[in-house]
Amino acid sequence: MIQYSTKKGLKANIKMKKQFLKDTIQANREIFFAIRQGIKDEWQKEFSVGAGGDVSTGLDLFAEDIFIRYLSKYGKIESEESGVVGDGECTIIIDPIDGSSNAFSNFPYYGSSVALVDKDGKLKVAVVCNLANGDIFYKIEGKKVKFGNLENPVFSVEKPLKKSKVGVFERSYSFIEMGVKLVDANLKYRAPGAVALSLAYAHRVDYVLYMGDIRIYDFAAGLGLCEDLQVSISKNYVIVSKDKAILDKIESLIIGRKKGNIKVA
């Protein structure tokens, strides 16, 4: 289990973490500018089922190769596509393309997720990038979340947006009646279809809700960016919000749903 600790004084080398961040940003830049040239036909081809349980596409594997090239020197890579690659004390957990169906549909909400974890399970660096528009978020252990853009690499602290109007409910299509409950509770939501990316934007919305099977590739980096927010993690759901009252309200709806034995779509 990854430990999302923000305490300082851990043994990881500061210089190494900064270099890891630099290389991760550069890998994202290479992927970003390649995609900007247009989705290639070979990227849409489907291959075998990846380690995460989904069918890998050519785009997934293209992005994975780039991350491996930049990051394998830092430790073993655990990728949603190829599983464990290489070795080393540290583990780099990656989802090379988060939301590939969006990418192929030219829907501008897809990205990448990278988490550097030490041998004790402590998160050292988390990076999530929106490869559609270049938005990139990162957090180094013990520091605040920073936001910038691949085309203008000037970063600032990401702060909660006070006047947000909607939340995000990922995989809402599988939990239709839960969606109705949220709307009835005046908790508007959107379902853009890229979990790690939605967690990266969590400071800007009322809440992020995910229901279903929890895979480490989707959450390792994304949850690392949410350490300063309210977070509830259960076996079958994750809730993140800047407002504890909203989190508690959503959790009560989920618990009520379980007690009522509501069927899903």
Could you please describe the fold and organization of this structure?
The strands form three sheets. An eight-stranded mixed sheet has the order 4-3-5-6-7-8-9-10, with helices on both faces. The chain has a five-stranded mixed sheet with strand order 12-11-13-15-14. Strands 1-2 form a two-stranded antiparallel ribbon. The longest helix is centred in the N-terminal third of the chain and has 23 residues, at 14-36. The chain is built from seven helices and 15 strands. Helices cover 31% and strands 28% of the residues. The protein is α+β, with helices and mostly antiparallel strands and 265 residues long. It is globular. The model is unreliable at 4-12 and 259-265 (pLDDT under 50). The protein has two domains: 14-157, Fructose-1,6-Bisphosphatase, subunit A, domain 1 (Fructose-1,6-Bisphosphatase, Chain A, domain 1, 2-Layer Sandwich), CATH 3.30.540; 167-259, D-Maltodextrin-Binding Protein, domain 2. Helix 1 runs antiparallel to helix 2 (58-71). It has helices spanning 14-36, 58-71, 100-104, 176-184, 195-200, 216-224, 244-259; strands at 46-49, 55-57, 76-79, 83-85, 91-98, 111-117, 123-130, 135-140, 146-149, 152-157, 167-170, 189-190, 207-211, 230-233, 237-241.
Descriptive terms for the model:
265 residues, alpha+beta, Fructose-1,6-Bisphosphatase, Chain A, domain 1, D-Maltodextrin-Binding Protein, domain 2, 2 domains, 8-stranded mixed sheet, 5-stranded mixed sheet, 28% strand, disordered C terminus
